[in-house]
C-alpha cells in the first residue's frame, strides 16, 4: 500500500485534474469545429471510412476500468505527444499545399496544436506531482521518425483520421482525469496514482 | 520431278534482291546450283545453295536464271526475271526506345530510319499504331513522313494519351513504306515491328490507386481518371468532387471515369475518390489557369538603391501553395535574376531589384509561371528617369523673421548623381495656397534646406514639402508632414 499523499499534494492534484478536464473539454469542442471545417475545406465526405492511420494512437482501450492512474496519465501523455507531432506535420503540409489560401483553417489547426501541447504539459505536471519521471523526454528531441511521403489524398484522409481520433481522445482524457479525482473506496481519500483503478 | 519452281525475288534495299524458290517434294533435300547472267555477253555467275535462297544484285533490266537441283534426279529450269517482277518492301523497322512521361501521359517513340541502305532523298512513310488494354485494341494509327538521307537517322515522335499511361498497358508498333518512284516492281509496306509495351499499373502485383496522382491541369480540360485495384476487389463508386461518374472498364484491374470541361478547383483541390469494397483510393486534382501576361509593368526607385517593379497580374490562377504562380525578374544586361516573393492573397504585386553599380538602363523581363503555363512581360527603363523619392522627413523650421522662413528636411536615398526638385506648399489664412519650387544637387541620405521670402509679418503659415528628380521628372514624392510657423511682427 503506498503511503497516503499529503493534503497539499492531493489538493494540487485535484486542481490540476479539474483544470485538465476543462482544457480537454475545450479542446474537444475546438477539434470538432476544426473537423467540420477540415472536411469541408478538403472536399471530403464526412462519413468516409478511414482505415487506421499509422502513428495515430487509438483512444479505444480494453479494460479501461482496470487501468491505474499512472497508466492513464502515461497513455494520455504518449497520445498527446503523438498528436502534437501529427498536428505539426498537418500544419506544415497545409502551408505547403495551400500557402495563404485558407488562413482560417491554418489558424484553427495551430490553435488546436497549442492546446494539445498545453495539455501534454499539463499531464507532465500531474506525473511530476507524483515524482514520476517524465517518460521519453530524451527521444522527444528527435521526435518520431518522419512518416512515409503520402499522396495528397492520403494526406487528407490521414488528417481526417487524426482529428477524429483526437476528438475521441479528448473525451477519454476527461473520463481518465475524472477517474483520478474519484476518492479511493478504502480510505475515502483521493488515491495516489499507483492505486487508483 | 525435282523441278525448281516458284522462283521469287524480293528486295529490301533497292540494291540487292533475295531470290527463293521451291523444289518439288522429291528433290527437296539436295543441293542446288543457282546461275544467273544479265545478258548473253557476260559470263554466268553461279552459287551452290542448300537453303534455296540466294542474294544477288538487282539487275538494270532483267536477268536469266538457271537453277539445277541435284537431288535424286538432276533437273534444270531456266527463269527470266524482269525488274517489274521484283517486289520491294523495306525491312521491318526497329524501335530503339519507347519512353513514357507519366505526368503528361506522353509516349516518346524513337526508331532508326535505316536510311543508309537507300539512295538519297527518297520519301518514307511510317505508320505508327498505338494499342491499349489486354485485348490490344487499336487506339490510333498515325502516318509520319520523313525523307531518307542515305544515313541512318534516329526519328522521334510523341503521342499524348487521353488516358493516363498508368491506367492500362499501352503498346506501339511501326511499319514503313519507301516511295521508290524509280523502282518499277511492286512496292509494299514492311512488316509491323514487334510491339513495344509500356505496362500499366494494372499489371503490377499489389499495385492500386487512382491515377493520375495529384495532377495540375488547365480549366476546361477533359480528364480521365482510373482506379487500379486488386482483381478480386469490386469498385462500388468513382466520384469527381461531389459527383459520381459512370465507369468504363479498361482491364480486370482498372476502371476509369471521364470528366469533361473541368472547372477551377478550390484551394485544396478536387478529390477523385474510388470506393472499393474494403477501402478507399483517391487522388487530388488541381484545376487552374495558366498565368496571364503581366500588365502595366512599371519600375521606379525611391532611393536609387533599390528598384521596385509593380504590375497587374491578371486573372488569378486558382492555384495555391507549392503550385502557386511564381514570379522572377531577370535583367538582361547584367544577367541578374531575382525570384520575387509575391503573396497570393495580396492585391499588389511588387518585386525589388538592386540598383547596380554603373548601370542606368535596365532591360527587365518579368517571368511568370505555374504548373499550367508561363508568360512574361518586358520593360526597358533608364532608372535615373524613374526616381520617385520617399516623402521628405523631419521637416523643420530652422529660422524666421517677419518676411522669411528657413526650412530643413531629410530625404532617405542616394541621389548624388541627380539634381532634386522640391516643391514647398505655403498656406495661410491670408492667401491662397502657393507652391514654391526649389532645385538642389542631390546627396546621399542627406538634409536639404530652403528659404521662403516675401512673406507677411505676424502671419501663421502651414508648410509642407515634396520632391522629385529635377531632370526627367517622373513622379512627385508624397508630401512631407506639415509644419506651422508664424512670422515675427514687422
From TrEMBL, chain A:
It comes from the Eukaryota. One of its GO terms (biological process) is astrocyte activation. One of its GO terms (cellular component) is cytoplasm. This is Ciliary neurotrophic factor. Its main location: cytoplasm. Belongs to the CNTF family. It holds the Pfam family CNTF. CNTF is a survival factor for various neuronal cell types. Seems to prevent the degeneration of motor axons after axotomy.
